[in-house]
């Protein structure tokens, strides 16, 4: 089973090195075609994301040093030694298991993240377009996609939020149900708020308004999600129109006070507001939690949810690992059985071809006036020798190794009962 994986990821190398060996989409096809020329029998798939670059191979001959040299050359690293100590290698069943773990999100920076499966599928499809996928990888990757789907279906690996941004959106969904009729006010324009906006957009939030001290930054973020941008001084006038308020700024003092929220609630005729404060120091006064119909959650509240969810995902990951081990074994056994079937087919075809060739020669000699009895004896002797040659060698090898099981099978098969 000639499967090999050579890779580098967030666990083995810093981002400064990972970015050097990453394959951009416009370079991937060129890389696949170029690498395939190093070994005409190779099947190759290249997976390249922000956290990993991995080369998957189905090859009988290629060596690790060849792969490292090629990777270094393609990315103009100067010397392959720059990669030493950062690369990992998996072979055969370990390679199969690794691919299934990657596609299932078990090897990701965020345990159980779902995007990686789509990235593996895209890498596979790009390799098919490049013509570097053959029957072995077709079977392997289709089995991998089925395993990843089973992991998602049979475990809770992706069910729980493991970032405060995602937890904030999940909390909003618990309170409001579907977000398609909810309006959200985001206060701040940093990385956390940007991630919140992404999750809200993916959940079809009705509208997003972004407030920030620098209006240009608010506009940049709002445009990504088809929302509205306002200055931070306009927050009080927009609170009453917001069902959800999520804030994460670098302000040293609270920017949303209890009085402001109380006024907004009166304008909303006591329709509830969910307020989520992801900032440290806090952006929203703690007294807001005392107001009726105002539901305030802090970053500490969400961190408790995240910690609990991480524990749930780790438990789910153990279940997923059991599934992957079982399915890896099934795939390997199925592959070995197919190879044995192919071996039997080849043996039958070659044996039949040899018999046909001997028969053809005997018939020609017979047409030329040869003695039928002599020709039949010659045909019988030659055919017998050819049929005995392979089994005899197998039996001699089994005797040399003392392999009782094989000798028993050969004896029962080759020596018929009288």
Could you walk me through the main structural features you see in this protein, from its secondary elements to its overall organization?
- The chain is an alpha/beta fold and 418 residues long.
- It folds into three domains: 3-158, Glutamyl-tRNA reductase, N-terminal domain (Beta Polymerase, domain 2), CATH 3.30.460; 164-307, NAD(P)-binding Rossmann-like Domain (Rossmann fold, 3-Layer(aba) Sandwich); 336-414, no CATH class.
- Helices cover 56% and strands 13% of the residues.
- It has helices at 15-18, 25-36, 64-74, 93-103, 115-130, 135-154, 164-176, 191-202, 215-224, 235-239, 258-267, 299-367, 372-401, 404-414; strands at residues 3-9, 43-48, 52-58, 88-91, 183-187, 207-212, 228-231, 244-247, 273-277, 294-298.
- α2 (25-36) crosses α5 (115-130) and α6 runs antiparallel to α12 (299-367).
- The protein starts with a strand and ends with a helix.
- The model has no long low-confidence stretch (mean pLDDT 87).
């Amino acid at each position: 089973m000639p499967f090999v994986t050579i890779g580098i990821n967030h666990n083995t190398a810093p981002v400064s090195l990972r970015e050097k060996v990453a394959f951009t989409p416009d370079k991937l096809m060129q890389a696949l075609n170029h690498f395939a020329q190093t070994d005409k029998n190779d099947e190759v798939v290249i997976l390249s994301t922000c956290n990993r670059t991995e080369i998957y191979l189905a090859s009988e001959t290629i060596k690790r040093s060849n792969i490292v040299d090629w990777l270094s050359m393609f990315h103009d690293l100067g010397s392959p030694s720059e990669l030493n100590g950062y690369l990992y290698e998996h072979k055969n069943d370990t390679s199969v298991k690794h691919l299934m773990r990657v596609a299932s999100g078990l090897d990701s920076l965020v345990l159980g993240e779902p995007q990686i499966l789509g990235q593996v599928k895209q890498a596979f499809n790009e390799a098919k377009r490049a013509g570097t996928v053959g029957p072995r990888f077709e079977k392997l990757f289709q089995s991998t996609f089925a395993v990843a789907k089973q992991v998602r279906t049979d475990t809770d690996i992706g069910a729980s939020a493991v970032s405060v941004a995602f937890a904030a959106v999940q909390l909003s969904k618990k309170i409001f149900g579907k977000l398609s009729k909810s309006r959200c006010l985001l206060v701040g324009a940093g990385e956390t708020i940007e991630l919140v906006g992404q999750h809200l957009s993916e959940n079809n939030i009705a509208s997003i308004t972004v407030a920030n001290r620098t209006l240009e930054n608010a506009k940049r973020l709002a445009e990504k999600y088809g929302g509205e941008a306002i200055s931070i001084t306009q927050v009080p006038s927009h609170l009453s129109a917001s069902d959800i308020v999520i804030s994460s700024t670098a302000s040293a003092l609270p920017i949303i006070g209890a009085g402001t929220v109380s006024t907004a609630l009166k304008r909303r005729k006591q329709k509830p507001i969910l307020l989520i404060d992801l900032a440290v120091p806090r952006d929203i006064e703690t007294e807001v939690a005392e107001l009726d119909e105002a539901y305030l959650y802090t970053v500490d509240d969400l961190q408790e949810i995240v910690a609990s969810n991480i524990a749930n995902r780790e438990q789910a990951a153990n279940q997923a690992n059991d599934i992957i081990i079982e399915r890896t074994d099934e795939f390997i056994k199925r592959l070995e059985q197919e190879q044995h079937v192919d071996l039997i087919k080849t043996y039958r075809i070659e044996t039949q071809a040899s018999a046909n060739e001997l028969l053809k020669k005997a018939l020609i000699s017979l047409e030329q006036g040869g003695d039928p009895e002599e020709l039949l004896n010659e045909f019988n002797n030659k055919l017998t020798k050819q049929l005995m040659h392979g089994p005899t060698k197998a039996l001699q090898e089994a005797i040399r190794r003392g392999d009782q099981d094989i000798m028993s099978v050969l004896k029962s098969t080759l020596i018929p009962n009288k």
